[in-house]
Amino acid sequence: MGSLTEVEAARRAELLEVLRYDIAVDLTELPDGPKVRTTCTITFIARTPGADTFVDAAATVRRATLNGQELGPARDGRLALPGLAGHNTLVVECEQDDTRTGPGVHRAVDPADGEVYLWTSFEPDQARWVWACFDQPDLKAPHAFTVTAPESWTVTSNSGEATTTATGASTIWVFADTPPLSPYNTVVNAGPFHQVRRSVDGYDLGLYCRRSLAAVLDRDADELFEVTAQGLRFFGEQFAMPFPQARYDQVFVPEFGGAMENFGCVTWSDGFLRRSEPTPVEAGGTARVLLHEMAHMWFGNIVTMRWWDDLWLNESFAEFAANWAAVGATRHTDSWAHHLIGQKLSAYLADQGPATHPIRQPIHDVAQAMSIFDAITYPKGASVLRQLQAYVGDEAFRTGMASYFARFAWQNTTLQDLVDELAAAGGRDLDAWRDGWLTVAGTDRFVLDTGGETPVLVGSGPEGPPRPQVLVVGAYQEQDGTLVRTAREVVEVHQERTPLDLPAGAAHYLVNDDDLTFASTRPADPDAAGRLPTPIARAVAVTSMWDALLTGEGTAAGAVAGLVSVLDAETAPSVVETYLRMAADVAEFWSPPALREQLAGQVAECCRRIAAGPTHRRVALRTLARVTTDVDALVEAAGDDVDLLWRALVRRSELGGDTEAEVADLLARDPDPDAKTRALMVSAAAPDAESKAEVWRALVAREVPLSSTHATTAAFWRPGQDELLAGYGEKYLELLPVMHEGGMIPGLYFSQDLFPVFGQDATFVARALAVPDLAPVVRQTLVSRADEVSRMLRSRG
Fold first, then answer.
1. Where are the beta strands (DSSP E) in 582-653?
2. Is 489 helix (H, G, I), strand (E, B) or coil?
3. CATH code of residue 389
4. 11 and 73 assigned to the same domain
């Protein structure tokens, strides 16, 4: 299907004003069949009567009329609209029967009870696969949904509560008009949902999931409601604009990837409903995703970018705001430290490799827009917005944001609109800041020159001097075996060398202390990380260590040693869990084969030390399951922890052990409706050709839920199995041209997770990069993953 270009979108926006959408959705065939039928009535004005345009319609068009006149068939996903009147009524009847692997709409069957669930997800331009629409962000209009569904089903949509009418074996759900929304912000979800509701601060909050996960949702409901209420309160205050609708729903659905910020009705993967009690990282991650999608209510729904070149205005801001709110309003006060080591590291990798691009860049068409949902747009963009907050000051930042939302509510904006509001609030020219940070790719580098009477901060940027920015340098002295910060300077950088008002001769200096900017640094003493006094200071030091590994300046052995030293000092639960994962990653993916067993042993010993205490026992045992050679001891330590027992079986399988009886026993005991996926992971890890082949077939056939793809492929690509995995390079190359089928999210997941991590060499990486004619989302993800694996290969060498 054709991809809408920016030029086409601009012409259509200049010509049209969309007054409203009235969309009838028929789901009555879904319990037994795949079809979704829709009738979309679009009322719109043409500013130039007599002009021609087109409406996006990628589903099968059964009938279409414009002002009562029959229209011809749709071609290449477009339905021509000739000879427009001043005021127009377009009626298009569509049918979509590819609800298993097609984009935009999905029919999922719960393996536990056979119940059917239906969800839609439309970013960036996938509403056109379900009903006809002008599928671009700057043609916003109210949407009114009428949904006919089986009588036992519940239907959710943007505007909250519906009026219902029973009719035979069906129920008709009539939803009120939404505010003016872009087509990609709309949603219809349906199925026999389990529902939990609560009234907080005048809001009617709802949670939904499939019935087989009711107990899990009930367990997590208090936490989800608490964070939801905290977020609504925080954002309403910071933006001086409360969320404008009384009802706010969150729907957890099967076979979904990630989460989507539909106005008033956020759709989640039900993989976020952890089958075992969430760990600190899992709980914090869920809170941040919840706050990320909530921030989109303002940044994306109420105010929407004009075109996809300002996607960062949506995603970067939501990622920034999630951490901002988590620290300011919830119990997850270490979120910025977790952001640094959990997400920002991926941005440093991407920004220093071939996949880098400016945060804001020209986007020719929507297909290209799909390729920038990446580490530059998300964690780098979020980090740059945190830098902007420091650059203009907290109060000016809040004032500017409040003014921005007040001025542009329910409209579309560009980057300059936001910059103008923040510049006015802060009383300073932001043009140089904007140009340096948003239109130039690459990472600044800072080091400290301590050779003179006082320290001098020395910086460089991608194109010469460093960008204009504010950062902190801390001076530390030894005290009882630890480092204590005795001086701190907030530095505004505009040139290569910046003298500091800090005492000479400190035991340690930390550049980018408090992590206010996005820059690569190198500490004078790499071994000091474990002695620094706060989670964020230790995280800054670990980032430098990890960056050195990525660039080849450091070794896997050095990284493991450094992480173990930090783990011996770290107390923040979410950070401990992340460092454990990083240490295991180094041992598995980055270490030379001759050192792999030794480094894995160091990580295992660290896990045992941590597991000896109660605070971090469970997360330490989870990591131990990746590196231990004593699986029996791990099983004994796991007790009745079903999740940990599955992890132990994956490891036993990887080591060549017989797991058949234990898998059968766990399948009988595990209440998770998706437990068979855990059994598939056990097969994936086995050093057995038939097992590998069956798991690969299931992945390629998309029988594995998207939420489990990463864990399944992590079990598949195991160190030491190179000979067994060698043939999967060719299989990956064969799949590349079709990996985007089904939409942006499958394209991201499969091109990333199926990329061979073992069994290939640098020649294969070059061959993968040379495959022609790939969808932009696949091409960009491939380039990024190939660069990371190339760095792994270099480190192993």
1. none
2. strand
3. 1.10.390.10
4. yes
Report field, pTM of the whole predicted structure over 0.85: yes
CA 460/CA 451 separation, integer angstroms? 19
User: Which pLDDT band holds residue 458 (cuts at 50, 70, 90)?
Assistant: very high
From 473, 494, 517, give the residue that closes a domain.
Answer: 517
Give 473-527 pLDDT, tens digit per residue: 999 999 998 999 999 999 999 999 999 999 999 999 999 999 999 999 987 677 7
Structural tokens at position 483: 């480092």
Examine residue 102 and state whether it is found in any structural domain, yes or no.
yes
| Whole-angstrom distance, CA of residue 656 vs CA of residue 464 | 54
Residue among 255, 366, 46 nearest 673 (CA):
255
Q: Which amino acid is at 137?
A: P
User: Which residues are CB-contacts of 425 (< 8 A; sequence separation ≥ 6)?
Assistant: 392, 396, 397, 399, 400, 403
**Strand 78-81 to 188-191 pairing:** unpaired
Q: What is the mean pLDDT of residues 571-582?
A: 94
Residues 493 and 378 in one domain: no
* Cα 642 to Cα 269: distance, rounded to the nearest angstrom: 21
Strands 203-209 and 247-253: parallel
Take residue 96 and report the two structure tokens written for it. 């979509």
CA–CA separation, 65 and 494 (whole Å): 60
Q: Are residues 464 and 431 in the same domain?
A: no
Of residues 26, 59, 307, the one with CA closest to residue 182 = 307
- Residue 126 carries which DSSP code? T
Q: SS3 for 673?
A: coil
18 lies in the same domain as 160 = yes
Q: Tell me the C-alpha distance between 562 and 570, whole Å.
A: 12
Q: Looking at the domain assignment, is residue 340 inside a domain?
A: yes
Which residues are within 8 A (CB) of 706 and not within 5 positions of it... i.e. 6 or more apart?
255, 256, 257, 269, 745, 746, 749
394 Cβ contact partners less than 8 Å away, ≥ 6 residues apart: none
In a shared domain, residues 506 and 380 = no
CB atoms within 10 A of CB 630: 13
Question: What is the amino acid identity at position 441?
Answer: A
Closest CA to 759 of 789, 785, 790, 729: 729
Give the N- to C-terminal CA distance of the chain in Å, as an integer. 44
What's the CA gap between 723 and 534, in Å, rounded? 44
Number of domains in the chain: 3
- On whether residue 590 sits in a domain, the answer given is no
Neighbours of 35 (CB within 10 A): 16
Give CA–CA dist 254/210, Å, rounded: 8
Phi, psi of 111 (to 5 degrees): -65, -15
Based on the domain organization, do 429 and 462 belong to the same domain? no
Give the H or E element holding residue 155: strand 154-157
Determine the longest span between alpha carbons in the chain, in angstroms.
Answer: 87
The bridge status of strand 170-175 relative to strand 105-109 is unpaired
| pLDDT tens readout for residues 416-437 | 999 999 999 999 999 999 999 9
Neighbours of 302 (CB within 10 A): 22
Active site positions, annotated: 293
Reduce the DSSP state of residue 477 to 3 states and report it: strand
3-state secondary structure of 492: strand
Q: Please indicate, yes or no, if residue 762 is contained in any of the structural domains.
A: no
Give the angle subtended at the CA of 544 by the CAs of 538 and 546, to the nearest 5°: 100
User: Do 422 and 324 share a structural domain?
Assistant: yes
Domain limit, last residue, from 453, 484, 517: 517
Percent residues over pLDDT 90 in the chain: 96
Arithmetic mean of pLDDT over the chain? 96
Domain range holding 357?
A: 303-438
Would you state the pLDDT for residue 524? 67
Report pLDDT for 481. Answer: 87
Same structural domain, 42 and 157: yes
Choose among 142, 138, 130: nearest CA to 175.
Answer: 142
Spatial contact of 572 and 774, defined as CB atoms under 8 Å apart: no
For residue 421, what pLDDT is reported? 96
Among 341, 404, 350, CA closest to 373: 350
